[in-house]
Amino acid sequence: MEMSRVLRSLREVGDFIDTRRTKLESYKAWVSTVSSDLSGLASTYADVVAEINGYTPTGAAETYCKDVLAKLVAERSALLADVNTLVSDLSALTEF
Predict the structure, then answer these.
(1) Residue 95, SS3 per DSSP
(2) pTM of this prediction?
């Protein structure tokens, strides 16, 4: 194989690695943003949460809202735990 082809292939490999590194850097930043967004969800909807928490479940609508809120809080908590684990794992990468 000619040296020019070898050198071109080496540049292609370097470009390939660099492109993937850049994508991982973007992904790392995006995952951190997701964590922040999920962390701030309760304060974003604090007025609605306070309203629902103030309900006395005397009717079907109030009971439904309290049940749905409890399920969403549990779902958000589980997702946030997974995302924070991912943030921690990505933070341990020192390549970028």
Answers:
(1) coil
(2) 0.79
